Amino acid sequence: MAWKRGGFMSIWKKDAISVIGLGKLGQPLAVCFASKGFKTVGVDIDETVVDAINRKQATVLELGLQELLDTTGNNLRATTSFHEAIASTDTSIILVPTPSEGEGNFSSKYVEEALYSLGKALAFSKKSYHLVIISSTVSPGTIEGRLIKLLEETSGRRLNEGFGLCYCPETVALGNTIEGFLRPDMVMIGESSPEAGEQAETIYKQFCENNPPIIRMSLINAELAKLALNCYVTIKISFANSLANLCERLLGADVDVVTQAIGMDRRIGPHYLKGGLSYGGTCFPRDTRAYIALAKSVGLKADLIEAVERVNSWQDTHLLEIVLKEVERAPRRVVSVLGTAFKPNTPVIVNSPSIKLIRGLLDAGVDVTVYDPLALPNTKRLFGQRISYAESLLTCVQSAPVCVVATPWPEFRQIDETHIHWNPTIVIDCWRILDPEKLGVRVHYIPLGRGPQTIRQ
Ligand SMILES: NC(=O)c1ccc[n+]([C@@H]2O[C@H](COP(=O)([O-])OP(=O)(O)OC[C@H]3O[C@@H](n4cnc5c(N)ncnc54)[C@H](O)[C@@H]3O)[C@@H](O)[C@H]2O)c1
Asked: 158: burial class by Cβ within 10 Å (0-12, 13-18, 19+)?
């Protein structure tokens, strides 16, 4: 073992790591650890996932994942056995789901189940010490309020004696997880003791390629920092969206010019500051709910974040109104929607703005044809026969007199007049990724976030 609690820590030998939960995040994380030379054990309760990983077959679609998995050789194996994880590794990182529950708190049900299994395996183990790192997002107060007690009870060990515990929340974004794991802006470590924090710091220093700042803190502060980070990003997104809405009503205004300018100011920064559609995915909408629930639980009102949720939901209404207005003028009540994933490079459609648009269009009796480079299987599972699915970008654009570019996939940028069938075709470009010059005279181009020079009144 590389680490002896309170004793000498070798910087020459890497810890063996187990990653508990091989889903959208855990799978790329385990593969990254193995690719960096850590002996890695992936643990999941889903045998199909375990079998696939042992056959070197990725089960989640993530940029570069399969290629990296192919390079992992003997460094990565997967199992359903927590005993194996405890027996053959020094540190376990937990990355199981934490969905919203009731009031909006994160459910820690799956984390508790994983800790229960880990604790039982620890109880059997002859090893004197194991580090447990929780990376799943949890509600502030959960670790010290419930999880430590659970692990102490199931393992029969005391915190900081028989095991150490850290909270290292993941800040990566789907579609970019491998880069996000290997080259993070920073690593946050909430620690149960300085020794536990030091062991985690050593692991991340060996793992990350960009020598990121490592910020060590208490467990509660790390829990809060993760929630605060995501909620702050939703404020930025919603601010850019509010600006875009303003620009649409002001002669000659262009949200991209405004956000590019203010993003140069160090107090603001350029990232997540592009006016467009509502934020979606598995994290942001869940995290704002959790923030509001947390504030309520301590007798506060989260006015700012509640306003963010209102702005975000208004973006969906706004888009539907714009599209329906164009449908009323069109020769056929059919709309082509380009992109159903909530963002490019992922098949995830959870809380996707285009999914909400499609639902609104169906409710209004409008036919819909969709195309997405990765998300069509998930979209088919959701809508079945209620909508049509195009096999290509070309056939999707040609299928309707109104076309909405909803997800800014890079391949959509190639749309030009050779894609156009209907005369006229209304193209609503939610992220302003198309070149209107290339679309030809049959297209009425509507870029959201730009003023009336370019929007038909
Ligand atoms: N998805 C994101 O963009 C993102 C970003 C940052 C943080 N997170 C956090 O990461 C965590 C994991 O998210 P995800 O999107 O990878 O989840 P996921 O649903 O894609 O995968 C979870 C995996 O955990 C497995 N699992 C469930 N219970 C288990 C148990 N008791 N033991 C072992 N395996 C178990 C499931 O079988 C599944 O394979 C969540 O807390 C999430 O909030 C997600």
From this structure: exposed
